[in-house]
């Protein structure tokens, strides 16, 4: 059953939840200032990076030209408010989490704004013949298993940048959007909830086999007509390639302008992605982040999601050539600090 849409008071409670950081990173302003001073004193890299206090400070820095003056790809922050992370996504940053020295339990946020962004425009998508054949027997879903997909990512890649505070923030943002629009947390009631007031919402894409097992998936962020991949996983050989191809066609069917794949990897280029300089990416991103997509409707089309041949065959593009053996079949945004 679908959760009932929240009443006025409940909606305010949901909004208030986005101002509360998860357990373990709930620092008062004075504590954050103290931690910041220690970190910058001990780690020179952080002294050279812009520090972002909170949402208001982010807006001030952007107004002052942060996107054009940022020399490194990273800023940093000790603010883990979900609303702040959502705003970072809305401004084109990837919200990466890092632990200060392994095992300390001290986490920082590393908002990343690439100097070059790997972007896939759907007219350039290349799907290998072998991927088309392997897609038979799989089915796709959207926003049905967000938590399980994150678990799969940690299972395959380790925590990497998906440390506990970041997983908690992303889960809260996803659940908040679903609850705000009367969608059950498992996504069964109504597919994809529309984006929030800032125009960005967390999402997951899942690939299932004929036995109903989750074999691949990814999590990311929808900002209007741009979808940004965060990380993904696969448990079965070639399932990652199938999930990538089907996700590309789902996004195309849902009227997305382009797919932001983040960091450059060879297999992304083989799919048809190109590198955009930061200025070009941000110009295009800002132009489409406020435009609605049709992902909600597409996510409810059970017949389409269960028919990979229909999805992969709709555009009629020529199949790409086979890539080299051993090519990675799933993407992942990494902290290359």
UniProtKB/TrEMBL annotation:
Domain of life: Eukaryota
Location of the region described as Disordered in the Swiss-Prot/TrEMBL record: 311-337
Cross-referenced SUPFAM superfamilies: Acyl-CoA N-acyltransferases (Nat)
Molecular function as annotated in GO: leucyl-tRNA--protein transferase activity
GO cellular-component term (any): cytoplasm
Gene Ontology BP term (one): protein catabolic process
Keyword Cytoplasm: yes
Record-linked Pfam families: Leu_Phe_trans
Compositionally biased spans, kind Low complexity: 311-324
UniProt entry keywords in alphabetical sequence: Acyltransferase, Cytoplasm, Transferase
InterPro entries: Acyl_CoA_acyltransferase, Leu/Phe-tRNA_Trfase, Leu/Phe-tRNA_Trfase_C
Annotated protein name in UniProt: Leucyl/phenylalanyl-tRNA--protein transferase
Organism whose genome encodes this protein: Diacronema lutheri (Unicellular marine alga)
Organism ancestry: Eukaryota, Haptista, Haptophyta, Pavlovophyceae, Pavlovales
């Amino acid at each position: 059953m679908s959760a009932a849409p929240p009443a006025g008071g409940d909606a305010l409670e949901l909004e208030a939840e986005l101002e509360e950081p998860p357990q373990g990173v709930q620092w008062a302003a004075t504590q954050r200032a103290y931690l910041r001073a220690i970190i910058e004193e001990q780690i020179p890299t952080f002294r050279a990076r812009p520090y972002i206090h909170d949402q208001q400070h982010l807006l001030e820095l952007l107004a002052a030209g942060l996107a054009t003056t940022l020399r490194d790809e990273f800023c940093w922050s000790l603010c883990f408010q979900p609303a702040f992370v959502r705003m970072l996504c809305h401004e084109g940053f990837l919200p990466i989490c890092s632990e200060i020295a392994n095992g300390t339990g001290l986490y920082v946020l590393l908002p990343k704004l690439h100097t070059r962004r790997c972007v896939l425009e759907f007219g350039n998508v290349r799907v290998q013949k072998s991927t088309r054949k392997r897609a038979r027997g799989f089915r796709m879903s959207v926003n049905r298993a967000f938590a399980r997909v994150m678990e799969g990512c940690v299972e395959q890649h380790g925590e990497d940048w998906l440390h506990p505070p970041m997983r908690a923030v992303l889960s809260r943002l996803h659940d908040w959007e679903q609850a705000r629009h009367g969608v059950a947390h498992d996504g069964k009631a109504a597919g994809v909830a529309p984006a929030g007031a800032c125009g960005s919402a967390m999402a997951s894409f899942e690939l299932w086999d004929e036995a109903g097992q989750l074999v691949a998936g990814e999590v990311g962020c929808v900002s209007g007509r741009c979808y940004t991949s965060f990380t993904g996983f696969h448990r079965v050989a070639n399932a990652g390639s199938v999930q990538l191809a089907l996700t590309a066609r789902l996004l195309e069917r849902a009227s997305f302008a382009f797919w932001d794949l983040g960091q450059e990897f060879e297999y992304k280029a083989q799919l048809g992605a190109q590198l955009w300089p930061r200025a070009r990416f941000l110009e295009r991103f800002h132009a489409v982040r406020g435009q609605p997509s049709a992902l909600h409707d597409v996510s409810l089309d059970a017949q389409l999601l269960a028919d990979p041949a229909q999805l992969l065959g709709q555009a009629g593009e020529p199949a790409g050539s086979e890539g080299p053996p051993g090519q990675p079949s799933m993407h992942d945004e990494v902290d290359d600090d």
